[in-house]
Automatic annotation (TrEMBL):
It comes from Meripilus lineatus. Belongs to the ELOF1 family. GO terms for molecular function: RNA polymerase II complex binding; zinc ion binding. Residues 82-110 are annotated as: Disordered. It is found in: Nucleus. The lineage of its organism: Eukaryota, Fungi, Dikarya, Basidiomycota, Agaricomycotina. PANTHER family: TRANSCRIPTION ELONGATION FACTOR 1 HOMOLOG. Residues 82-103 have a biased composition (Low complexity). The keyword Zinc-finger applies. It holds the Pfam family Zn_ribbon_Elf1. The keyword Nucleus applies. Coiled coil: none annotated. This is Transcription elongation factor 1 homolog. InterPro entries: Elf1 (IPR007808), T_Elf1_sf (IPR038567). Transcription elongation factor implicated in the maintenance of proper chromatin structure in actively transcribed regions.
Amino acid sequence: MGKRKKSSRKPTGPRRKEPLETAFTCLFCHHDKSVTVRMDRKEGIAQLFCKVCDQRYQSKANHLTEPIDIYSEWIDAADAAENQAATTARRPAASSSRSHPSAVFGSDDE
């Protein structure tokens, strides 16, 4: 039996935790890092707002919620609202207010 080769892997130890983003790009005005999230975990509320165009969004939050989660919810809610508006705009009316042309089969002059 031969000897085991030494591994070139780094020693396993505590990993450094990368901080998550806290400033985001606005969906409406497209300014970078203009959207921030305020979290009130005690009250269970998270508020997102844009410093430039003053767009706002509010959602429920718990002890596991992060600002990126609220930003993602905002994106989903904006997409859903846009899809709903597009659906109602394309939906045809149930009835028409136009009168139907009356059919003329013959005239009284004949």
